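Recap quiz, item 2
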Amino acid sequence: MTMKNILLITLLILTQFLAKAQDNPQPKIGWFITPEVGAMFLDGHVGKTVGASFGVQLFKNHLKLGILSYGRSGPINGATFTTPTFNDMVYKGKNQLTLRADHGAFGLLLAPSFNIKNVSFDIPIMFGTVGGGFYLFGEDRETPDGRRVSEWENELMDGRDAGFGSTLEFGLRGFFPTKIAGMRWGMGLHYTTTQGWETFYDPSGEFYNNKLRASVFVHFGSN
Amino acid sequence: MKQRKNAGLLALLTLLLGFNTLFAQGLLDLSVGTSIQDQVFTNLAYRLQMNPRLRIGAELQLAAPQYRFIDAKPIREGYANTFSLPITWQLRQNEKIDLHFFFRPGLRFQGIIDPDNNDVRDEILSSTAIMLDPGLIVNIKASERLQFQSGVSFPTFFQVRPSAIFENNSTTIHANLAYEVSKRSVLFAKTLIGPAVGASGDSQKFVWSAQMGLRLKFGSSSKGNPLLMEPSY
């Protein structure tokens, strides 16, 4: 089942829950949407991320259950990485590639929540899929024979220009109140691990594994 | 017998829709913007507030591409037209914050004249794609005349012609603003950004869009929230 189907089904199920709870004057199921931007503290550079989480709040808003999706997109991260080509292949007169990195994480979010005075905290735990790789950019994306860039990237990096794996992430977030009930702003710190993600540039799979991530967000919800 | 039954049902549905439409509030949006994929685009949309919770509409986007894709290869000029049917359904309403479900299915037609760039306009490279754009919108009432929206949506494109390709899926977060200038008009601005993936990495990897426009209100103003702005990309 593809990510898009999972997202659509999750949204449809969520709407059914919330629409039914709307009829109850004191709904037991709350909701949340949390758009975020963040920074991943990777080896040698800090990657910028954009993403969001959304879902329901249960047990008097003490447990968030939903989806978290975010990405460290190549076009907003200028860091480059150099690698020799596979089998010393030549691309546009060179056997060294200069690449950018692109990444996305998507998974189920479970976050127990608690309050200390008027500040809320939660412990976000995300388990899901990570996908990412290294790609040609700029003028290198104009291939010499008109074939698709991905075909060349596959050949130049032995079919391992990108990969998928699983990810487990956990952290701590603080939510600070605003003048508008149901709207908070916050910050979080997360520890990210990946399992089974390997590429030609990074055969060890450590590029995103055991790394810290910080997030800044605006939280909208039923509390 | 079955055909007569189906015709009767269709007639009844048409009557109900027409009756509901008569008493619905109409909203006409006109906006201009730019994005990672278009030098400039214009959106024209007409929406009907059927009841306090349900809004349906039709939207047409005309764009001048600067970085789009046909068969997962970039085009940097040409045309891109998207026709969609946005639906918005209110899920929750608090004092200052509303939650809405949003879904916008559509069709996209884009193309480039003279794709081999030999200055002879004898060839057109074109594509057709299905668009699905589900999402959640949060509306915040800052004051009687000023409201903000945020939320998340997942615009997804499947190219069906000239070949079948899962072209792109984005996770976009949006920030919109609507200000009621008069009883019949609203000024608005919409922005969105987010990571994207598709076509084995050959299509967009990051998307952004920004637009400004004017909304005109027709009909009864007692239903729905005319300052609620749906995202569009």
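The first strand of chain B starts at residue 25 and ends at 35.
Helices of chain B lie at 2-22.
End of item.
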